[in-house]
Amino acid sequence: MEKQILEITERTEFGKGASRRIRREGGMPVVVYGHGEEPKHYVVNYHDAFLMVRGNANALITLKSESAEQLVIVKDLQRNPLTRIIEHMDLLRVKADEKVAVDVPVVVEGEPAGDAIATVELMSLAVEAPVREIPEFITIDVEGVEDGANITIADVKFPAGVTTELPADEVVVVIAVPQVEALPEDGEAAEEAAGEAGE
Questions:
Q1: pTM of the entire structure?
Q2: Do 156 and 84 reside in the same domain of the chain?
Q3: Are 47 and 27 contacting, i.e. CB atoms less than 8 angstroms apart?
Q4: How many domains does the chain have?
Q5: Domain match, 24 and 89 both
Q6: Are 42 and 88 in a shared domain?
Q7: Do 112 and 147 fall into the same domain?
Q8: Average of per-residue pLDDT across 53-79
Q9: Most CB atoms closer than 10 Å: which of 21, 57, 161, 194?
């Protein structure tokens, strides 16, 4: 895994006005907490942070200051409700040799048999994974799976070292042929309309 380094500076101003000023200057406020230490507030470069978390909600990042480095994972992103721009990040301190609880997105690959389609019931799975081996997503292969099949937690192939406490019979993906309601023919539609008009 390539080491992602994000430079930080200590945040000294707080409040909405200060936050807006930080963003105007190309920065983003972040808070770092965990491992029994007091939360710390920093400012990071928005563009650098965005590139690290884009497409990876559980990105592992090394924060670097003038005096030290610390390992963190992303725990929460606050976005502007209108623009969807990331306005703030919550970061969790972690140790390189520990396992952490994270939600990992589900990705379906392959095509079911016949006209069946795959419907994802759980968009992400709660798992525990080694800090340096957190998967970006959990892949579920539906190639050739028949209509009526349910893919459960017991069927999911988790990467090495990744575990879950979700029930084994929890349904993750449903395979089914879409039910299309037959449309009435023109003659039938006209008869129904005439009948309704005469009532």
A1: 0.77
A2: no
A3: no
A4: 2
A5: yes
A6: yes
A7: yes
A8: 89
A9: 57
